[in-house]
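Honest question from a wet-lab person: if I give you the sequences of every part of a complex, can you actually get the arrangement of the whole thing, not just the pieces? Trying it with mine:
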Amino acid sequence: MLIDQRKLPPPAHKPPRLHKDALLMSFQNQWQIRQAYREIIGLNDVDHFSINIVSPNGEMSIISYNPSIVYKIFKDGTYLYNGTISPTYYENLDFYTWDQCYDRRFYSQVKLSLQTKNGIDTGINLIHREFGFNILFSFASKRKYNDLFCNAAENNKEFLKMGFHCLDLIKEVYSQYYQSNEMLLIKQPNHIKPICRPNLTLIK
Amino acid sequence: MGDIDKEVGLRLKTARKAAGYKTALDFANQMKIPKSTYSQHENGKRSLTAEQITHYADKLDMEASWLLTGLGHPCPLGKNKNQRKEKIEREITQLQESNNLPHLKNPHIEINDNSAVVNMELFSKIITSAITALTAKNLPIQAEELVAFCIDVYNNIEFLATNHDEKNKIIDLSINSMLRGNHIIQKRVINF
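Yes, you can. This is the full assembly:
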């Protein structure tokens, strides 16, 4: 079970409200998530990707390429202080880096748990809001001297394109945890062109 | 002496204690070397040669590569060694928290690795569970795809700070996701 939150000092920002299966849902669907996300892994220095969906009732589901990261931050309680999944940030900002959200009092512990132990160098979040949903596209790079932050800042359409592409592929996974057709209505905005998927049968 | 010598020395000290030698003198006597030489190795005042590292690792039943770099598993994996491994890992975490040792990322294995230290007990369990489940459901899968997925499952489970039962539960969840995923692919093929 998760750690007893009553023993911890209150976080500096609003903590997220998690879906009851958030801890294990990425393990429960690891194969499907892997098949979907690996279509973008490697592009633009992205080594880790997660889609965190906050439904209109405020519950967050986490669908991650590396389920162990989610598991570890929930078990050790650092998710309360890392801020990257806090409403304080995702409700007010459209783009932010992970480390700017860390609770300053626990900066090193949070960075250790979320980044250092997982070999992650840079992490960023891009937010899309529609039909009462908050969708957090979370990208991270393990490469030293990567250009993830600059790339995402300069070409955020490119990153949103990758995010929506994966979102389409994991809607079936999400529908197991939130039964509503509203999610199906969320489409990639028109001003972002969809990723062109090659027709492999034409390539000899 | 540099930081690396100090880090190697701290790992050596942790390993020595975990092996049951309470004092540096006990171990120095066992190794038949002067206590002052060994103490200097532990406190990083004297550099260790490759030969000495291998020799200490051998005597303490540790991985020489871990002693040198801190990467990978501290001791050879095995059923009877888990307790010692846990003890060492606990002490290393304490040293890291007090900033005496740098934090290192969890070593992951990759399909392209020429060699890696692998917890074979865990990896065998994952691959056996996957093959058994696929055979029972008569589901086809490409061998490379299966191995790549099992490596991913391994990397996600090996370094979770949780008990054996929870790890087994997570293996089952991951393997079940593969069965469901393959069913979906088959359905789609049939629908075409």
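Two things worth pointing out. The interface with chain A takes residues 103-106, 108, 149, 152-153, 155-157, 159-162, 170, 173-174, 176-178, 180-182, 184 of chain B (CB under 8 Å). Residues 120-191 of chain B form one domain.
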